[in-house]
Amino acid sequence: MLKDESAKKPQRSTRLTILTMGLLLSVVTYVAPPAVVYSRATEPQRRSQTRRPATRPAVPRIDYSQFSHVTHVTTEKLACDSCHKFPTKNWKDARKGDEAFPDVADFPEHSSCLNCHRQQFFARERPAPAICSNCHVAVTPRDTTRFLFPSLGDAMEPKLKTREFVSEFGVGFPHDKHVDVVGLDRRRFRPDAPAQVMAIKWSVSRMQSEQSKSCPICHQTYQPQGKSSEEYVTTPPKDLGDSFWLKKGTFQTVPNSHAVCFTCHNAESGIAPEPKDCQLCHKLLPPDQKLKVDFDPKLPAFVGITDTSILDRAKKRISAGAFRHEGGAHPDLSCGGCHNITVMNTIEPQTLRVPIKSCGGAEGCHITATTDDGGALNFEIDQKKANAAFVCTKCHMTFGKEVVPDGHAQAISTLMPKLK
User: Where a domain ends, among 106, 138, 165?
Assistant: First the structure.
């Protein structure tokens, strides 16, 4: 019996060994396949990654706090009345009493924006979605005050804030069609007979004097000196000498609202364009329109000018930046004597340029046959010829550092035969 038991022990040991090896083999078999499958699965992925096209450039993020009419009008092809309603609900409150008239006097309602910008309106941005800042002052749910709408330039109130922005529009105003009509007494004509108003344009133009009666309707001298002893807008330094310092009465005003326009162009008169036809006057300006202006950006801070009306006019002067409308004999001259009204197109700034020959005047004024006759242009050209570094400051701010244009010398040569 002992011999038999001892013979069975190796058999049991062998079975145990075989069983253990079998278990190990099953474990390896269970674990290994996923590894093999994984390696096979990753092989084609690696090959596909090498064939994947180049990464697309990141799309610039849109700043919805900067409203763009170009996007809405040019890209989306939206009409003005898609957003702006004429008249707006607040037109009776925008101007008081008899001064009130139907007008676009407020920003579009939320419903105009939600059709396309629902996602931006309900964006999780604090204190409020960025898109709200286009119309609202505080941009908080508790304060819903809106900025003063740009068409209300004549209704300035201390409580209303104006948003600082550069308009994308230019106003197309044909001066030649208005110069002989605007100054007429409109009360003499029936509102239902606009043709009669237009018909008298040519007959009245013959009777008008050289001094246009219509220009002052829209343009007046801004901050005139008048009889005041204060010549400058701000106090100049004692050692100013011949250096430039802004004087009062330098600029002319321009209409800053619909108030003047709508006195004639309204539904009752029937004179086109009517107030609802926004696009006939407001034209989108080319985005690359860069005018060369006779203006020094550092000047306002140096002189201490903060008046927005002055700054707006100064930044747009493309002829003589230092010219003063109230200075010398200028107030006694006809506007048409310097400005070529027949070609003036407010959408094309180059047509607004004052020709240098206008400075000659009937008596020579700033352009004379010789320097001895007192012409300012003659004197400065002679100085420029003698010294190329000489800066012309009689009329210019920045243009005076440049080479004298050919037109300046031609203006003198054209005038010479007349004075001999």
Answer: 165
pLDDT class for 381, splitting at 50, 70, 90? very high
Amino acid 247 reads: K
CB distance 200 to 184 below 8 Å: yes
Residue at a domain's end among 354, 370, 388: 354
Cis before residue 405, ω within 30 degrees of 0?
no
DSSP 326-337: TSTTGGGS-HHH
Q: Encoding tokens for residue 348? A: 């094309």
Domain encompassing residue 122: 69-165
Give pLDDT tens digits for 85-111.
Answer: 999 999 999 998 889 999 999 999 999
Q: Any alpha helices (H) in 277-404, and if so which ranges?
A: 299-303, 308-314, 335-338, 376-386
What is the distance between the alpha carbons of residues 355 and 253, in angstroms, rounded to a whole number? 21
Residues 157 and 179 in one domain: no
- Give the C-alpha separation, 42 to 383, whole Å: 83
Choose among 342, 366, 362: nearest CA to 352. Answer: 342
CA-to-CA distance for 229 and 250, rounded, in angstroms?
16
Q: What are the residues whose beta carbons fall under 8 Å from the beta carbon of 378, sequence distance 6 or more?
A: 367, 368, 370, 371, 412
**Token couple for 46:** 């690696």
Residue given tokens 């493309």 in the structure block: 318
